[in-house]
Amino acid sequence: MADRIELTGLTATGYHGVFDHEKRDGQEFSVDITCWLPFPDTDRVEDTVHYGELAEIAYRTLTGPAYDLIETVAGLIADEAMLAFPLLHAIEVTVHKPHAPIPHDFADVAVVRRRNRKGAFRAILSLGSNIGDSEAILAEAVERLHPIRVSSVHRTAPWGGVEQPDFFNLALELTWCGTPLSLLRYCQHLEKCAHRERKVHWGPRTLDVDVVQMYGATSDSPELVVPHPHAHERDFVLRPWEEIEPAAQLNGTPITELP
């Protein structure tokens, strides 16, 4: 049986809940995390899970963008931790909401989310930005995605017919330990953290994170069509992708021959 690290009682004010007053006023949440991993035979923090960094992931998610469900919050913490710490065999995240708006006496409300490496799959993501300090925004997103491989940053013309500044784009490959839809949710979470506003279709944005391809997983959800239905038309997707995976194919055609 694997060794484990336990982090309990991390508390922060967040704005999660289905009611307007919860998102306006906020309330106290707390998190307990259990990590299973083999402990090292060294005395080096680099050979284990840094629980200070683990706590930062949890705190940042609790205090970050507001969600209706604490189930979502717990899942985001678990997903980012599995990305950040390849040594982890599995993780369990419990989010407590002791002041939930329930009109009866109660001690606590808690949800538990678990992740492990069974069924993990590889995915190719395309990232872009053309508002704000785009290169810094992309660098922060890459840091939170913990990729296996990442391309250089490409400056590209906008696509879709909307007049706007050039984009900065890159591609990366990562290993994901959740479901395909949880990967989509995490990508959308990073966009929310970058204060993306969806005002104009194919318009300017602080951050865009698209799932382009998955290896070892499929999606039958209309929310996530993979391979990305427009990837073959987009040079800003293909050229960074080609840089990290030159032998890749898209629907049977080498990406080096596209668009």
TrEMBL record:
InterPro entries: Dihydroneopterin_aldolase (IPR006156), FolB_dom (IPR006157), GTP-CH-I_C/QueF (IPR043133), Hppk (IPR000550), Hppk_sf (IPR035907). Its EC number is 4.1.2.25, 2.7.6.3. SMART domains: FolB. It comes from the Bacteria. Pfam families: FolB, HPPK. Gene3D superfamilies: 3.30.1130.10, 7,8-Dihydro-6-hydroxymethylpterin-pyrophosphokinase HPPK. Pathway: Cofactor biosynthesis; tetrahydrofolate biosynthesis; 2-amino-4-hydroxy-6-hydroxymethyl-7,8-dihydropteridine diphosphate from 7,8-dihydroneopterin triphosphate: step 3/4; Cofactor biosynthesis; tetrahydrofolate biosynthesis; 2-amino-4-hydroxy-6-hydroxymethyl-7,8-dihydropteridine diphosphate from 7,8-dihydroneopterin triphosphate: step 4/4. It catalyses: 7,8-dihydroneopterin = 6-hydroxymethyl-7,8-dihydropterin + glycolaldehyde; 6-hydroxymethyl-7,8-dihydropterin + ATP = (7,8-dihydropterin-6-yl)methyl diphosphate + AMP + H(+). Keywords: ATP-binding, Folate biosynthesis, Kinase, Lyase, Nucleotide-binding, Transferase. One of its GO terms (biological process) is tetrahydrofolate biosynthetic process. One of its GO terms (molecular function) is dihydroneopterin aldolase activity. Belongs to the DHNA family. Catalyzes the conversion of 7,8-dihydroneopterin to 6-hydroxymethyl-7,8-dihydropterin. PANTHER family: 2-AMINO-4-HYDROXY-6-HYDROXYMETHYLDIHYDROPTERIDINE PYROPHOSPHOKINASE. This is Bifunctional folate synthesis protein. It comes from Corynebacterium pyruviciproducens ATCC BAA-1742.
